[in-house]
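Summary for the steering committee. One of the milestones for this cycle was to obtain a three-dimensional model of the protein with iron/sulfur cluster bound, which we needed before selecting residues for the alanine scan. The sequence and ligand used are listed below.
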Amino acid sequence: MSASSLDTIQGMALDPKLRMGVSLEMVERALVTAAAGDHPDDDTLIVALNYRCNSRCRFCIIETEIDQRLEDTNRAVFQAVYRANAAARAQGRGFRRLTISGAESTLIPDLPALVAAATGDGGFDVVRLQTNARKLEDRGLVEALMAAGAREYFVSMHAPTAELDARITRSTMSWRQMNTGIDHLHAAGARVLSNTVICADNAPVLADHAAFLISRGVQEAHLWSFLNIGDAGQQDELVPLAVSVPPLLAALDRLDAAGVPATVKWFPRCQLGRHAAKLDDHQPQMLIRDEFQVRLSDGFRFDCVHARSCAAFGRGCSGLHEGYVAAFGDEAARLAPVEEA
Ligand SMILES: C[S@@+](CC[C@H](N)C(=O)[O-])C[C@H]1O[C@@H](n2cnc3c(N)ncnc32)[C@H](O)[C@@H]1O
Ligand code: SF4
């Protein structure tokens, strides 16, 4: 990439106070390559809008930043991103999809205005909200978001029953609110995708959970391994492969039978049997406070005891997260190297 290609995209230079500790250069660099990436998600930029949440999930990856009460991302950052993306799109590059995440973006009153600006001035074709969907029990909010251009909702759905959901989210209202939100989303014609964090609490019931996801009409189901990123207090949610693999395979069978596309993240590929092709560890480019980026890069190490002999390692499969190995060992006997990826 040449310096001049950045110059022509321009527009992300911001006063340090307005930058709020987010590294806009990463996005600037990604804007140059966005349209040329070889993964479908390369057309997506994730921006974290805030660090507050109405739930307190037992495994929350952003709990440290929520506890630090970091400020919401200001509008100057969004405007800089929108300006640069619109300029890049005019040159046939840039991002097509904006995913607004949080902690919990739906807590921000002017979210519909931010969405409208993204599809207007920002040059994005699609806005996706990554959300627990609790605030979407307000039908007026769903209608305002849809009218503004947010048509895709990546909804965290972690449990098939109110009781288990309450245990995981530490909220007795979360399950009812999320379900009402999903009703409103379907009524409004939104695209609803689910995300489930595979953890100690829900692993044994993943097959039932798949039936729940199907009954709720999700158009894609994502299942992410719980990543224990260095912070004390979440280890209880780690779950051994011996416990999680059989129900996960049963869940994937059910989703297949119902015709619901599924994606699995950060799971050893050799454990997935005929579902191995569903493994996809790719994550889109993300703009979030540097504190989180640093903590994540410090705690995002994966490895496999069979790395040298397995053709899949580093070619689609990341092996096991270091937090898992610290708790349960390297699983040398269970993991099975493959000859061809
Ligand atoms: C931190 S949440 C923020 C958005 C929103 N509050 C939600 O829960 O969907 C972003 C995504 O990360 C997932 N997630 C949270 N903690 C995780 C962890 N420790 N490991 C893997 N995924 C996690 C959530 O399920 C969600 O899909
Ligand atoms: S809803 Fe999302 S941000 Fe909130 S506590 Fe749960 S995982 Fe974290």
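Key point for the committee: Residues 50 and 182 are 22 Å apart (CA to CA).
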